[in-house]
Amino acid sequence: MNENNKKDLELRSEKVRNIVGQIPSYLLRTGIYIISAILLALLVISCFISYKKYETVLAELHCRPAYQIGKMLENGNFYIAASQENIYEKQCAGYIKDGKNSITGLYSHVNGKIAYNCKNGDYLKKDDVIFSIIPDTINQILAVSYIASDKIWKIKINQEVIFYFANGNNVTGYVSYIYPIVITDSATNNLNYKIEATLTCDKNIDPSQIEVIHSMKILVSKKSLLRKILSL
Hints:
Elements: H1 3-12, H2 14-21, H3 26-48, E1 50-64, E2 68-71, E3 76-80, E4 86-87, E5 92-98, E6 103-107, E7 112-116, E8 123-124, E9 129-135, E10 140-148, E11 160-164, E12 170-178, E13 183-184, E14 191-199, E15 213-224, H4 225-231
Antiparallel strand pairs: 1-10, 1-15, 2-9, 3-5, 3-8, 4-7, 5-6, 7-9, 10-14, 11-12, 11-15, 12-14, 13-14
């Protein structure tokens, strides 16, 4: 008996016909329906769940009006002019008297509170920090970052950002400005673009965090989980 005849006999046997013609049990049919429903639900849910991709960069915290830092322009003595903690815009904060007895006044750019980093008449070196002025009214808290020219195409106005402080806290914001002129990094010779992100945090920010470099994530891609899976 050849192989084909043998198969025909097996298919025509009563046992095979009973198995083939038997209707699946209720439990088996229900299980198939449940699994199908779950798969369909997962498919629908994956269409609505967002997959976000972030670019991590370094960013420096700033405020507007700017937090003012006064530095020595030359080696010399510094004489304090403001007698109170509060100082007003265009008010003289103090005078620098250099070795040639030339006197230069330093003035406040904003209304705010001034803190001196020296005593009256102290001798200081060029670029030493003399004082800092914290504006009374801060309109914006900004994060300033520099993006490599080959990655700037990923950055768009209004993209979401997450800014991380050194203590682990974070605040959200959005890219508010991209400067159009490319800048050469003198240390690495890399070409970068300067960007600003406006942060939605309390205006009464700790002044010690101003002009400090932190970490920031910029949302560069947002698509459904299904599209992400299908693109793999």
